[in-house]
Amino acid sequence: MPMDRKRFNRMLGEGAVIVISILLAFWIDAWWGAKQDSVREKAILESINSESLENQVELDRAIQRFAESTLAVDAFFNMTPQELGALPPDSAEMILGDMFGTYTYDPQNASSQALLSISQSLSDEGLNIRQKVSTLQRLVDDSSEEADAHWEWTLKALHVLALSSVESVPGGAAFVSTMASRLGPQVMSELRTNDDFIAAIMVKHSTGFAYQSELAGISGALDELRSALSELDPD
Question: Cys-Cys crosslink for 72: which of 99, 181, 200, 213, Cβ 3.0 to 4.6 Å?
Fold first, then answer.
């Protein structure tokens, strides 16, 4: 029996409602997923912003520490053994302590790693931040070789210092300020004529310059990241 028009129109309408309901459900699901992704992205970017502020403090501290070390090494080499031996105890302790000053930059990167590993679609802003985070992380990773070399030669110079002080500091303990305060300025003049110490401190100094160059590059990348983060819409 042929289907009457009224029944056909009713079935067509019901089918349309079902299709529209399914499409609407898909749209709502996609909209909600996109909204959740956006909320997650915003939270990560906010966390990276806080992380970058902490990292800036650490980087500035490392750069300042190397600047102090450079000045101390310059003073050590520019003074004669007699001048070094005549230094006030507090000055000798400060110079010797700064000479061994080393401060590697070890940034916090949990939030940055979360952004790099995220699989969801990112906004244009998120993609821009991720590119800058990736560049910064690469520079930090590349600096590890110079940091390791600098620390290695710091330990070698400390070893020479410990050997020269073994009678006064049991075990040659590598506490520079303690050695300087116990031994007095005379240890400075002795080290000035110690070829092993001179060689070790010079290599430590040169590796420090190489690491400082890496830190300068990291500083520029961190500045770019923080600038991009500051331009994000707070809403």
Answer: 99
